[in-house]
Design brief:
The protein is 60% helix and 6% strand. With 162 residues, the protein is mainly alpha-helical. The protein has one domain.
Amino acid sequence: MEKKTHRICEILDKLTLDALHLIEEEVQLKLNLENAMIGGESHLAKSRYIMGQNNVSALQLPTEDGKEFSASIKVAEHDSETLLDNPELQLKTVKKSEDESVQEPLRWFGVLVPQNLSHSQNMFRQALQWAVQAVNVQIRLKETINKIGVLKEAKQMAKLEE
């Protein structure tokens, strides 16, 4: 029985190290997300300065009365049979040929937009990718923590049997 407890302790140690690595990865992803958001907001502010505050504002965004449109990037679950218990999120780009209601958001602000506006769009897209990766890490971390809890209970049961 002591061998069983020792094996559980080894697995617990490995899972705890995995959890620490996942926490570190999550913190790094959130820092990257924050930097991408700050960069996107900065480029958006520069675009607003260049084009004027009325040309880059909520007035250019579509309204409820406007033409219907679909998102050009959507978050979807990973379709894999090996990940049945571990749903992983991924970004899916919707092509205009698949869905005619997809619009290029930069066109809401005119035909000739400053380069800063497209840089801002790219930074926000990168932020979305960082956010999805952070959520995937959180899912893996939660599963690891659940496994640790189960093994702690198993360890207590093994000690009682000894």
